[in-house]
Amino acid sequence: MKPKHLLLIIFLLLSPCCIARDDMHQTLYQMAIHDCLENVPELAEFVELYPDAIYAIGCIYQVMGQEKAQPTELTAEALIEERYHLVFSLKMKWFAGTGSVKRYGEPTYELREFQSVELRKAADGSVNGRGYRYNVESAKRFGPKEWRKLVVANGDFSVINITLTKGHPVPGVKEIFQSRRREKMWWQKALRKQDEKNKQQ
Question: Distance between CA 26 and CA 148 in Å, rounded?
Answer without folding.
Answer: 33
